[in-house]
Specification:
The protein is of the alpha+beta class. The chain has seven helices and nine strands. The strands form two sheets. Strands 1, 2, 3, 4 and 5 form a five-stranded mixed sheet that branches.
Length: 254
């Protein structure tokens, strides 16, 4: 299921644009652009799904979004850090994320690779530095990517209006893996749109956020209200150009 930097945002990376006016060279636009000419990288995420105790869907989405932010804010991802070159190369091309699933020995092998494990209420997601599109480490390449689906046993509580919310498109039916990647995209767009101080405050607070499906009556207003909007490139599951997520961070509200 596929489709931060720290400061400053590279000149070649757009911040966010309203859905009605996508940035010409957006990493999420459907049409080919200069980003397609660059070497393509992908940010791997692996969600732990043990057969007897799969995590709730919303918890997995929130943990995946937080994992992307943790990777973007990690000191190894910037400057002369060990992952900085890979992060820059990834951001200069399409911003691809792929979510795979693991359990048991598969998960233990994934944990042995360089990366960061982020834990939610019960979900565990490990994020790895970007790799070439066709250059996955063997222990990640063998993991399953399709068919990752999860359910919430009960409806999630209302989102805290004082905290960031990633609003999912109520009209799209996405697998859990696809939705996790899209939530990660939304978190990344919010990160890019924030000031240095706002990023630092969010990081120091532990990247609090919620992922919720928007009320259909509110979706149109969310996509045209000036907040960062993810438009999917259409590589998997949904049509190119579909608006999938609106990143509603309090600091970005008008």
């Amino acid at each position: 299921m596929s489709n931060d930097p720290t400061t400053p945002v590279p000149a070649s990376v757009p911040a966010a644009a309203p859905a009605s006016a996508p940035t010409p060279d957006s990493p999420f636009r459907a049409e080919p652009g200069d980003r397609d000419l660059a070497p393509q990288f992908v940010l791997p995420l692996v969600v732990r799904i043990e057969r007897a105790a799969p995590p709730p869907r919303t918890d997995a989405l929130e943990t995946a979004a937080r994992a992307v932010l943790v990777m973007l804010g990690d000191e190894r991802s910037t400057g002369d850090g060990a992952w900085a070159r890979a992060m820059r190369d990834w951001q200069d091309a399409r911003i691809r994320k792929v979510v795979r699933r693991a359990r048991g020995a598969e998960w233990r092998r994934a944990e042995a690779l360089p990366g960061i494990t982020v834990t939610g209420k019960s979900a565990e997601v490990r994020v790895f530095p970007p790799v070439p599109l066709d250059g996955w480490p063997k222990d990640l390449a063998r993991l399953q990517v399709s068919g990752t689906d999860l359910d919430d046993l009960e409806p999630p509580a209302a989102a805290d209006p004082a905290a960031p919310v990633l609003w999912m498109n109520p009209d799209l039916d996405m697998s859990a893996g696809k939705a996790m990647a899209q939530a990660g995209h939304g978190a990344q767009l919010a990160w890019w749109a924030l000031s240095d101080g706002e990023r630092s405050a969010w990081r120091e607070a532990g990247f609090p956020l919620s992922v919720r499906t928007a009320d259909p009556a509110r979706w149109g207003g969310l996509t045209t209200g000036g907040l960062p909007v993810v438009r999917d490139a259409g590589f998997t599951e949904i049509a190119p150009g579909s608006c999938t997520v609106v990143a509603d961070h309090p600091a970005l509200r008008r």
